[in-house]
Specification:
Elements lengths: L12 E3 L15 H9 L5 E3 L4 H8 L6 H9 L5 E7 L4 E9 L4 E6 L5 H13 L3 E4 L3 E2 L2 H6 L2
Antiparallel strand pairs: 1-5, 1-6, 2-3, 3-4, 4-5, 6-7
Length: 149
């Protein structure tokens, strides 16, 4: 499917391969390269554990029931990068999540995706030797971004 309109792109993925079913992804992204990329772009990204919510969770981990603690700790392990904090709404509008088990990065946008967002994600995908994908199937490359309306 050829992408023509920016509005047709919803929460793209970064993956080493295209997929119909996310659990079938065989080639996994390099977690260390992900950390390296986000760390080198701290002017844009904030690790979840460095957000107000993440700091609160970190400081109050002893109040979390032990049966839930392991899950909560996973959120504090450089798996979620946040960007574009909306002070009026009180939340980050762009969230990237590294899924260690699946070896992919999912994105969540609480605002309209722009060409600038796609350029940033494409830069990250290139750093990770991966694809930027719409719906797991359609590759978004420089040419696609340039031609989007």
């Amino acid at each position: 499917m050829k992408l023509k309109y920016l509005k047709n792109i919803k929460d793209p993925y970064i993956s080493k391969e295209k997929f119909d079913y996310i659990l079938n992804v065989k080639n996994k992204l390099d977690y260390n390269k992900w950390i390296q990329y986000v760390d080198s772009h701290q002017n844009y990204f904030t690790w979840y554990e460095n957000t107000e919510d993440g700091i609160y969770k970190k400081n109050n981990m002893d109040k979390v029931p032990e049966s839930f603690r392991e899950k909560e700790i996973l959120y504090l392990d450089k798996k979620n990068a946040h960007a574009e904090y909306n002070t009026k709404k009180g939340f980050y509008e762009v969230i990237l999540s590294f899924n260690y088990n699946l070896g992919i990065i999912s994105t969540t946008f609480q605002k309209k995706i722009t060409k600038e967002h796609l350029k940033m994600l494409l830069e990250m995908a290139n750093h990770l030797d991966a694809y930027l994908l719409n719906s797991g199937k359609t590759i978004i490359d420089e040419k696609v971004v340039k031609e989007l309306e």
